[in-house]
Amino acid sequence: MEIRNIISFIKVAEQHSFSKAAHELGYTQSNVTMQIKQLEHELNTILFDRIGKTISLTEDGKSFMKYALTITCAISDAKQELADVSTVAGELKIGLLDSLCITYLPQIMKEFHQNYPLVNIVIKIGTYEELSSMLNSNRIDLLWTFDYQIESLDWIKEYEYTNSIKVIAPLTHALAHKNDIALSSLACQTFIFTESNCSYRKAFENLLLAANIPFSTFMEIGNTEIIKKFVASGICLSVLPEFSVKNELQANEFISLDVSDFHFDMFGQIFYHKNKWLTPAMKEFGLLIKKYTKK
Known about the structure:
Helix content: 40-55%
Oligomer: single chain
Distance between the termini: 50 Å
CATH superfamily of the largest domain: Periplasmic binding protein-like II
């Protein structure tokens, strides 16, 4: 069983396409097709359903994927472990949320590159669902998310920290300079939110719904920078993590409302897969995350 055939199998499964997999791997489509046929012949099964233009894993294909990922991870780990551990080098793939990228990444990347210039960093930005799939398929080395506390039998949690969720409002808003605001005071307010699958948005909306507090949604968008600009312009309220609005609050661009019955923390968390060797580059990047999130 050839390693290149297993790598092609993983790539076809990720892309749901022989042609796209071939393009990424630098092969012709006929080469990838032949590699998959060889693998299916060795395993005496069919790994993909080919219905029209749709390519999807069969049940046997899904079962083999677990072993394929273990094999490729083991090879990657062996290369890393046998390399010169005194030199932090190679490729490091980080998956994280948009808000974390904007807030922390510039400082972390600057210091990391100064310390370890031989490391090539690949950044993947996405939702938690997208990033968790990447971690499970070895497309990223570290997953950095902000959510409820997550426990997974397949992942190792390298670090966890808390950060509070804030209700932010324009400086001109009627509630802006009041203290000890009741949650019911947010009734009929208009909000701009992150996407519907965002954990802290869900938590806030559920709190309002449970208290029968009506509200309206002006817009939903994944970019926190745009959300902050809309709030600062006086259009609406929003709900964002403290780390993402700290600079704007200090610059007095908008205000955090003192809502007495809304005290909610969520968790920044860094994971790597249990089958992944913690490389020197992964470890050092994790240490910088700890350094900058403790500020």
